[in-house]
Recover the amino acids of this structure.
């Protein structure tokens, strides 16, 4: 059985496919799974995943923008003679055209849940339910496998920065959508308190697009921080987060990276619905603002008369208390995870454990 999964999506979307891949392999151990992603950077998310046999790239904005290059990719897929295609990018016309390269094979198509709230992981698993996979009973944990070079890089960072033996708290500053970002002033105040009151080593993480946010935080905090924003690959980020006790983040890719390597997450949600995209697994904590009637609006644009009130009103005290409880609880999950007492954190009125 040769299976092609089509998903040229973002980091979080792709990691949310790892339960699907695991379920397919458990159902059909001899299956050969190929994954079609949208960029060379996305390849790293599955480079060391033992369940993925092949990773192909559909760069619709780059090399495959021309129809000639697209036709070559179509031909490459045709030669592989897939038995099953699962298209998780049904809104993309070119993705549909690529799926036709495998005809007359069986094609399953992802449908986003409508008029009901279901987590994206379970929603993705529903796509393969026809193969005898129970979406609810399946293992929903996300997976990210790092390489030896990435683990060595993280170890060298710990040694170089004299962080051995210290509790590491990572702060992910950015998000693809501004509505998911906690204010830089809040992050700066949190970093200062973590350093002063808990003696924690604070790591700033994020992509190159978050450089301005990192500079703004660094300018506001007197305590020393380790600025890794834009200075790690995806797998290096995964290795660093594996060594962290907790990650504080909005709804964005690094949040899912942390859960995929076994690190506890304090997730700050406003517009986004944690029931749909919240952290997967035990012991994570979701904090939402109290008393903001539009939460969650599930929109990428804020129309509140007080812009991003939902994120501003998640207070530094609430997040600091949550981190304190997690650090006090001890080891949990992966090598860097915290304790399992996240449900005891004192935060906003509206908290969720997922």
């Amino acid at each position: 059985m040769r299976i092609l999964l089509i998903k040229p999506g973002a980091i979080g979307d792709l990691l949310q496919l790892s339960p699907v891949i695991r379920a397919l392999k458990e159902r059909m151990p001899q299956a050969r799974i190929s994954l079609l992603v949208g960029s060379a950077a996305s390849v790293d998310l599955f480079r060391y995943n033992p369940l993925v046999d092949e990773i192909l790239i559909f760069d619709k904005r780059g090399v495959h923008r021309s129809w000639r290059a697209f036709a070559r990719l179509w031909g490459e897929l045709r030669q592989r003679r897939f038995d099953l295609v699962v298209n998780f990018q049904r809104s993309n016309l070119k993705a549909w055209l690529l799926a036709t390269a495998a005809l007359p094979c069986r094609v399953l198509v992802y449908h986003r849940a409508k008029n009901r709230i279901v987590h994206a992981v379970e929603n993705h698993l529903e796509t393969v339910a026809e193969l005898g996979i129970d979406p609810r009973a399946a293992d929903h944990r996300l997976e990210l496998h790092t390489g030896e070079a990435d683990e060595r890089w993280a170890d060298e960072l710990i040694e170089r920065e004299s962080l051995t033996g210290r509790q590491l708290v990572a702060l992910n500053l950015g998000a693809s959508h501004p509505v998911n970002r906690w204010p830089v002033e809040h992050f700066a105040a949190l970093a200062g308190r973590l350093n002063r009151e808990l003696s924690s080593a604070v790591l700033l993480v994020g992509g190159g697009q978050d450089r301005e946010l990192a500079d703004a935080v660094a300018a506001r905090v007197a305590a020393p921080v380790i600025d890794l924003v834009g200075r790690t690959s995806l797998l290096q980020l995964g290795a660093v987060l594996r060594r962290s006790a907790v990650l504080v983040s909005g709804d964005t890719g690094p949040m899912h990276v942390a859960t995929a390597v076994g690190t506890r997450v304090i997730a700050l949600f406003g517009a986004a619905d944690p029931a749909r995209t919240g952290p997967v697994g035990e012991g994570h904590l979701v904090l939402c603002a109290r008393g903001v009637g539009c939460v969650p609006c599930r929109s990428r644009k804020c129309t509140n008369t007080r812009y991003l009130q939902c994120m501003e009103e998640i207070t530094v005290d609430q997040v600091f208390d949550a981190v304190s409880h997690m650090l006090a609880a001890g080891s949990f999950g992966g090598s860097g995870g915290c304790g399992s007492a996240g449900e005891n954190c004192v935060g906003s009125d509206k908290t969720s454990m997922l």
Notes: DSSP finds 14 helices and twelve strands in the chain.
